[in-house]
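Slide 14.
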Amino acid sequence: MKSVFNREANELLLERVVESVPIRVFWKDRDSRYLGCNSLFAKDAGCDHPDKLIGKTDFDLPWRDQAELYRADDQKVMDAGISITDLIEPQTTLDGQTIWLRTSKVPLRDPAGKVTGILGIYDDITERKLAEEQQRETDERYHQIHDKTSDIIYFVNTDGTIDSLNPAFERLTGWKAEDWVGKPFSGILHEDDLAKAFDSFKQTLSGVAVTSLILRIKTKAGDYLGVDANATLLDDKLIMGIARDVRVRLLAEEEVYRLATIDGLTGLLNRRAFTEVLQREIEQTARYEQPLCLAMYDLDHFKRVNDSFGHDVGDKVLQTVSTIVSAHIRNTDICARWGGEEFMVLMPHTPLDVARQVMERLRDLTAEHRHVPAGQVTVSFGLTQLQSGEELEVLLKRVDDALYKAKNTGRNRVEAL
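Slide 15: predicted structure.
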């Protein structure tokens, strides 16, 4: 009597355990017919009580599309007498959706050890499965971008050494990634870009992203690749960035700058650019109390050259005179074409007496030259020195007056005011 009571108590305890565990539990006979299950499993099958599944097979349940798959698993367990664990398999739900299960099955045996069926458990891992699939797709997209993009994707360690480089690095620079991985990023940059690169590196380490930084990367061929780089601190140990080839853009910007600042005929600064330089030099001179002289020169009787020999010859004369002047001034002096046949020479840190000697020398050199076929073309110079507190407009007016005086007192001369 006691033995019967203990058996009934154990069966009741087992039933409570099966009902209380937060997973689906089921068991089948040798023909894969259900012998029992817990309430969670019955609910998945669309039954309001576990007893309603007894005698049914998977072909009778909402997941009939997976019945052959489940039966094959059952047969494998029963034929081999071994357990299979952590099977990842789909299941069709009552509302026709597909979810993902992690299933384990073990053989059931009678007291003699004979396999009589299987015991199975599963839990719903759909969310995890979908998350893993999304992560896999994200990783695949990243690798597609990483490998096929035309931009350099780089990772730099917080000690400044390069961690990795994508294939675009080799395509654009000729270097293999392994040539630079583990080495300081500074070694591949133009020396003139190092200061701003280090400043940006420190900024990134502080947690402030760099959105645009123009740098020049040394190529294996020995020239430089212009890139627009950004950088972001991913964690405390790694910086990620993208560097885009902007050689075409930089060349275009250089051309725009050249067109905006350089005279197309002589290659000198144009009036607009020279005026900006002159204004800066005036401010610098006032700050440090250094002398500054400005000369304005004009080709004498230049209209006769154009009228007699044509504008092509006239242009050649302008080019030759500007070349003579540029070749015989100091590196610190600045020449510009002011307009037509008028030119400027800016001489920072130069007193008036020294500047006059330079202008006399330039006058002699231009007068000695013989242009073909125009012959001699002389030049008149106006010269002045910046006065304390003087504005740009006043200085320009006085140098223009000095040139006018040179023109009206015989030409081929230097007049200072």
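Speaker note: DSSP finds twelve helices and 17 strands in the chain.
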